[in-house]
Amino acid sequence: MVTTKLRKAVFPVAGLGTRFLPATKAMPKEMLTIVDRPALQYVVEEAREAGIEDLVFVTGRNKGVIADHFDIAYELEATLAERGKTAEIEALRRDLPEAGTIAFTRQQQPLGLGHAVWCARELVGREPFAVILPDMLMNPGCLSQMLAAYAKHGGNVIAVEEVPHEQVNRYGVVGVGTEDETGFEITEMVEKPRVEDAPSNLMISGRYILQPEIFDLLGDQEPGVGGEIQITDAMKRLAKTQRFTGFRYRGRTHDTGTKAGFLMANVAYALARPDIGPEFRDALTRLLADEGP
Fold first, then answer.
1. Widest distance between CA atoms in the chain
2. Residue among 8, 220, 208 nearest 125 (CA)
3. Burial of 57 (0-12, 13-18, 19+ CB in 10 A)
4. CA spacing 20 to 30 A to 88: which of 52, 194, 220, 236?
5. Which of 159, 156, 158 is nearest to 211 (CA)?
6. What string of H, E and C letters represents the secondary structure of 70-114?
7. Among residues 125, 159, 153, which one has the least CA distance to residue 46?
8. pLDDT for 30-78, tens place per residue?
9. Predicted model pTM
10. Can you name the residues that pair with 139 across neighbouring β-strands?
11. Domain residues of the chain, as ranges?
12. Strands 252-255 and 156-162
């Protein structure tokens, strides 16, 4: 199947981060650090590893620091240069997107994920695009794995992961149809179903490849669960005319939108770092031993 190259990714980053107050009173939750890098940096790298060329951020008030992070810091680089810290300068420059490949738009009202994606319509245009939820850190990167399903089936691709069946009422859940080595045909999508009504225990896990027709549907989508514009509702409508493929993600996911998930991500990424991992593991082992049973 001939598919249009995936060039653009949308990052919804307009949330208030109320779960992390007071830390997020003046700092966007997406800029809270996992070890020594903002959480948002990890998902941007995932997009770039998958060949994404253009990054579209849907922001809100008090999110200007996100734009600053992806810009050149002249004063900082000058100070580092004076002190001979070339390694630090090179690290800063590696994180910068190429000029002209990053754009920002505002979601002026907190009307849900579907509305946030719709706000990016003019920047995306009429081509397929990825949606990456920055709260979900996935290692190894999920989007590059999804490309095989997109190349074979075209249409829309959604990453899914298994959850305990008794927890399906917390998530968007999909039904499973015909399956091959790249994924399965999605037969239905339900937002936060009752446990007894769930079509499977596969939750939608924060990575999407969508066709631009989704924007047309989001534009007149009625509010759903929580009084918000739910992207799942628009995808269900789109599924009447286009294929949706479910991709079973193979890797580890950390939901940094919760405090426990955020702390676990810090631990996991710190342990994986060769520069600090061994020392951190020893310190963590001693701490756990001191805690006792």
1. 65
2. 8
3. buried
4. 52
5. 156
6. CCCCHHHHHHHHHCCCHHHHHHHHHCCCCCCCEEEEECCCCCCHH
7. 159
8. 999 999 999 999 999 999 999 999 999 999 888 889 988 888 888 888 9
9. 0.91
10. 252
11. 8-257
12. unpaired
Would you say how long the chain is, in residues?
A: 293
Fold of domain 8-257? Spore Coat Polysaccharide Biosynthesis Protein SpsA; Chain A (3.90.550)
Looking at the predicted structure, is the pLDDT value of residue 256 above 70? Answer: yes
